[in-house]
Design goal:
The complex is a heterodimer. Chain A has one helix and 22 strands. Chain A is mainly beta. In chain A, strand 2 and strand 3 form a beta hairpin. In chain B, the strands form two sheets. Chain B has a three-stranded antiparallel β-sheet. Chain B has a two-stranded antiparallel ribbon with strand order 4-5. Chain B has a domain of about 60 residues. The longest helix of chain B is centred in the middle third of the chain and has 19 residues. The chains are: A mainly beta, B alpha+beta. Chains A and B meet through strand 1, strand 2 and strand 20 of A and helix 2, strand 6 and strand 7 of B.
């Protein structure tokens, strides 16, 4: 494992661990160097869920959300990997289909070859409705790596103590508002930038528990603000 | 015969002489790598510290000459390793899971 991205780590109500990167520098990275390094829950269980149609794609407990800046994502595979070269296009198609209608679909500078694929992604306005992580399903492959592409890139990495949580995000343009319903018994919102609710300021990177059935959130910053909603 | 150097001994407040040592570093196998040298007097109080510092500097320089990106790699005891590399299985296991609640006190989040 390679891990040199600095994170501020918070334990939210003993339910969810919220890690937000801080003061990142270009070229810092997180790399899973083998299938035995997929993340786990608090009991040490892998949380791998195969895609219903494609066994070479999995969901894991890794739920990265980009809140600011840009990243490069790279996957590699060898002969032991479930994911192989012939699965690349299927994965790309799945990403495209999953995010139809987004303003700026994921998949910027895409590069691939035998045994690898990589793409850069920058923080932009993409989704005006609540959507799952871009990386909800990822190749079930040998190694995976994210590299910070510019200083002060901010990554949110929520980890669940126990499985069953859903992770979604939405983007808000400066000065605009969105509505969040309360889809779970326990619902948390992580604020990617400065916002307000009914005139009350919400600090950048705050984590709030939504108890009202519906709340309107306004982006008070000058940037595109990403909210991440986590519920069970 | 090595050269002699004059130095001031702060304990005795005297000028003294000592042999000058010249250290030369050449890589064992990669002859294309730069050659480095350093002079220091025998029994210098900070001999080990200065030599170690110079060796670290040389190791980094050789690493770059070999084509490694210093933003991604560092040297440890003449070995080139990736920055942030975690090799200890117990340490890796800790990174893969959320921290134990006793390691990070829970925060009760405000309600909206």
């Amino acid at each position: 494992m390679i891990f040199n991205v600095p994170f501020d780590v918070r334990n939210i109500d003993n339910q969810i661990q919220i890690s937000i990167s801080q003061n990142t520098k270009a070229k810092q990275r997180i790399k899973r160097e083998g299938v035995n390094e997929y993340t786990k829950d608090a009991e040490g269980n892998f949380l791998l869920t195969p895609h219903p149609d494609h066994n070479f794609l999995v969901k894991s407990n890794t739920n990265y959300f980009l809140l600011e800046g840009s990243l490069k994502i790279r996957y590699e595979w060898d002969e032991t990997s479930v994911f192989q070269d012939e699965h690349k296009q299927t994965y790309r198609d799945l990403l495209d289909n999953q995010y139809v209608g987004l303003k700026n679909p994921i998949g910027g500078a895409y590069n691939h070859g035998n045994g690898f694929m990589e793409s850069s992604v920058d923080h932009q306005y993409r989704s005006d409705t609540w959507k799952s992580s871009h990386l909800a399903y990822e190749p079930y492959c040998t190694t995976a790596e994210i590299t910070v592409m510019e200083d002060n890139t901010t990554i949110l990495c929520p980890m669940q103590h126990y499985p069953g949580w859903t992770f979604e995000h939405i983007d808000i343009m400066p000065g605009e508002s969105i509505v969040s319903t309360k889809p779970g018994d326990d619902t948390y919102i992580v604020f990617g930038d400065t916002c307000s609710i009914a005139g009350t300021d919400i600090a950048k990177h705050a984590v709030k528990k939504q108890t009202s059935s519906e709340t309107t959130i306004k982006n008070d910053s000058l940037n595109v603000c990403t909210l991440v909603r986590i519920y069970k | 015969m090595p050269d002699e150097v004059v130095y001031f001994d702060e304990e005795t407040n005297e000028n003294k002489t000592a042999k000058e040592i010249k250290l030369v570093w050449t890589h064992n196998t990669e002859t294309s790598l730069s050659v480095h040298d350093m002079c220091i007097r025998e029994d210098h109080e900070q001999y080990d510290e200065f030599v170690l510092r110079e060796e670290n500097r040389i190791a980094k320089k050789w690493m770059i000459e070999l084509g490694y990106d210093p933003d991604l790699y560092i040297t440890k005891q003449w070995m080139i390793v990736e920055k942030g590399k975690i090799s200890d299985p117990d340490e890796i296991e800790e990174w893969l899971k959320p921290n134990h609640p006793t390691a990070i006190n829970p925060i009760t989040s405000e309600e909206i």
